[in-house]
């Protein structure tokens, strides 16, 4: 079910238009839907992302029942177009504020690895797995691992 994911603004005004105009940037973005050292991110936005505080407003989504504390990453509409039947299973569960991808990435995985970790979570879900992920989230946030 589509919903508005609450976040602090971390990008410059017109970021989407800038992406549309820059072919190289667009190609890099298409691979993972994230950019390391994204030139569209503001100085304050870099700090918010590095500290993961940009995700804090999504607690509103959790309280409204649109998201869970733990689960697969929320996706944007452009990602949905890439999905086949296997990936569409990700849409059967609530997206999470944190998840396996956020706590397990020691390097930046590509998009397929991200989807695989989210699928693993769905296939192996348990209260214990959620607790493990929640317990590993804080050290990941403090270390700034994977935040960009």
TrEMBL record:
Domain of life: Bacteria
Location in or out of the cell: Cell membrane
Keywords for the protein's UniProt record, in alphabetical order: Cell membrane, Membrane, Transferase, Transmembrane, Transmembrane helix
All copies of domain Bacterial sugar transferase, residue ranges: 2-142
Pfam families noted in UniProt: Bac_transf
GO cellular component labels: plasma membrane
GO molecular function: phosphotransferase activity, for other substituted phosphate groups
InterPro entries: Bact_transf
Protein family according to the UniProt entry: Belongs to the bacterial sugar transferase family.
Name listed for the protein in its UniProt record: Sugar transferase
The organism of origin for this protein: Candidatus Segetimicrobium genomatis
């Amino acid at each position: 079910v589509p919903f508005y994911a609450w976040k602090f603004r971390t990008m410059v005004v017109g970021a989407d238009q800038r992406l549309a105009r820059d072919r190289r940037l667009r190609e890099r973005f298409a691979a993972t839907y994230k950019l390391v050292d994204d030139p569209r991110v503001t100085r304050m936005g870099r700090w918010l992302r590095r500290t993961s505080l940009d995700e804090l407003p999504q607690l509103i989504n959790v309280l409204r029942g649109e998201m869970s504390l733990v689960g697969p990453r929320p996706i944007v509409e452009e990602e949905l177009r890439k999905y086949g039947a296997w990936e569409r299973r990700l849409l059967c569960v609530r997206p999470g504020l944190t998840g396996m991808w956020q706590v397990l990435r020691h390097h930046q995985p590509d998009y397929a690895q991200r989807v695989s970790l989210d699928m693993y979570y769905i296939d192996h879900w348990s209260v214990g797995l959620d607790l493990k992920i929640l317990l590993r989230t804080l050290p990941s946030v403090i270390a700034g691992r994977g935040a960009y």
